[in-house]
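Please check both lines for our workbook:

___
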Amino acid sequence: MSKTKQGKSPALDAEIRLPRNVVPSHYDLTFHPDLTAFTFSGEEVVDIEVLEPTGTIKLNVKELKLKKVFVVSADGTRLDGKVTVDEKAEIATIKFAGTLGAGNWKFHATFDGVLNDKLKGFYRSHWTDESGQKHTIATTQFEATDARRAFPCWDEPDFKATFSVTQVIDENLTAISNGRVISQTVENGKKTVKFAKTMKMSTYLVAFVIGEFVSSKPVNVNGKEVRIWCVPGREKLTGFALKAAAFATDWYENYFEVPYAGGDKIDHIAIPDFAAGAMENLGCITYRETALLVDEDNAPHAAKVRVAVVVLHELAHMWFGDLVTMKWWNGLWLNESFATFMENLCLHHWKPEWKVWEEFALARAAASRVDALRSTHPIECPVHHPDEIDELFDVISYEKGCSVLYQLHEFIGAEVFRQGISAYLKKHAYGNTETHDLWDAFEESCKRNGLDVPARKIMDAWVFTAGHPVIEVREGDSAGTVVLTQKPFKFLPEEDASVWPVPVIMRVRKADGSFVEKKLVVGNSEETIYVGEKFDHVVVNAGGSGFYRVVYSPALNAKLTDEIGTTLDTVERFNLINDAWSTVRAGITPVEDYLGLVKIFAGESDPNVWAILTASVRHLHKLVEGEAKTSLEALARDLVTPSVQRLGWDRKDGEPVQDSELRAQLISFLGTVGDSEEVQTRAAEYFDRWKADKSSVDANLAASLVGVLAYCGDKARYDEFFKLSKEATNPQDTLRFLYALAGFRDTELLQETIEKCLSADVRSQDAPFLFAALLGNRFAAPLAWDYLKSNFDRMVKAYPDSGVVRMVGSAHSLDTPDLAPDVRDFFSRTKVKAGDMAIAQMLEQLDINVKLRAEQAPNLSAHLLPKQTASKS
């Protein structure tokens, strides 16, 4: 695809951007929230600088009623204003009874608003205590452009200012904001809470939370007080996040060589209703409960990883995003990609035994799947409307961006990379930057360390060019050479002549058995590399950090797969099978050849490699019926049973967490795709043990048992899971049992789950994900699709906008001949807010799945049918 360049369009400036003639420097904000009526009133005084004389001021407002607006000059001159609001542009124009001269003024406004139920702006959340009493919370979510829902403001990232917040609340409530509480007074049942002035920052980072909250004991980290907050009754779930936050705060300060600049406290707050995973508000980080609270002793590994990476991600933003901020939302990826990279790097140092970079291979693969679509987008692309900002919160901005940063990190070296980051943060602290500012810092760091690496050229190409290459490797005509040929990889054919400067790390095993590593930038469509005569084998993308695919010639591939367990490391094996499965989906590799490769991996020991193996077989399982399906189920059992027998059902003392994860993963696969009655029966026995004593069953296995028992479950099991979801004392169990309701096969039970998605039984933040799971269940899909079509307007009204986008994005699984045309027709007529990109990608993935079904299902059936159907184990 053609290179996308930065820049603002005329429409952007004319429609949604504010003029630069008035600049805020400080906001004094006072709020009076009413948690019974779900309303609030507010007053603000904003210090502004008028850069040139004007009779009007423009600023952002949405769903606020401005009551009184005036300005006062330094000499006391007051000018009253008349307000008109362009609701489409979300801009209030205030015309004053006179001219504001250049200089300093104070802008005064009073306003009223609603604590909405859409989980954005200043909104309401609810929780229920053990006695069944319902409680209300008022909280905020301002990124990207929703601070304007709470107070009139210059709601663009480069209008940085300082903020002083005051909350007037019921005296029994707690208030938390960006700064530390500096005073509290109580009068007539109302408590006035004043918070310390913040550092200079963007409006989207302002936050306040009001409700009945309790906190962990504070931990002091280099003079900063770190706490975890939650609703009463969940205090015992805060310990793990507190450890993660304490480690990361200290580690980041040392890594960046820049102290945390946001004050002397950092609060982490679990919110019962939260649309995203978390939000990096300065010193007042808010989270979905599952991303912060966890029972460390009884939670599966994945739940602890989830909490760790989210806490580490949000803390990284305190520097990269809060301290140094993108100038405009086209640079959103830089915030999110970098925080995603840092979460993994920090976790790698905190918990090296977790092997986080091996696990990240799954996230990189997910990004590469989207990036192989015609409808993908560059990591950085122009933003012309707020809806376009919301569309960029995807795997390209997070995981692909992280991947290209990691690719550079491994190519230039960890210390050279770190020095570049530190220099960038020190140079641009409290300011706003463009993408190239970071690349310049990397390039300067390379030069200081004697490296001749064109960092800016490399990163510009990867950030502004959509897609990624596949490198085909073959032996060259000259002895001791290999030829690398690159071309864009797409699932569906497309004319595209893009060529990337690919930072390639290559490992060569020489004839004498020794190894040599080569680093080179492959910038042409074909290059010949000398690797040494009579070399044994060559690994391109050694270590697996590159964001590109590799396909070897048959001869070179045979050398790698003959002794795959010793020739390739974990991520290299992952990439080999992942790239092979991608070529099946692209119609390049026959499915029967792929199954032959799968069998080579039968002795695999890593859960991440197995994740691709089992996911691909699970997808193939959906393509066949009858005897072919029975045969594939037997193949699945034959594939994984030896590993399950080796691992057993009980965790062994001292075993690595990867063995525990793999055991759970393969037992789940045996009990569902393998449809093993023996496994299903034993799963029920182990689940009974877990209910009696959670510590008696490995936490990773316990999570998998639920999926197996749903797959073979009846009405009694369904009712049990729903009851357990309601009674759960931690958020992970709540969601595990809730989402299991989408995994049954009985259509009457699945219809119950469908109906729950628009009932009080399921929170609006969770319902879209539950419904997405229903769309992915082949037994539920027709029912769920009919329900979605009939109730789509109700869903849009009930769910967060981002949840609707995620839900409809899962419709690519509806790839059967009767459903696929209907999906295309429906979305040709139905607009989804902030969903244009996601819908385009979903429809393209639907086409890929339909093509795979049409072209490969007959071959797969023919391949499977001659085999003797095995009895269930």
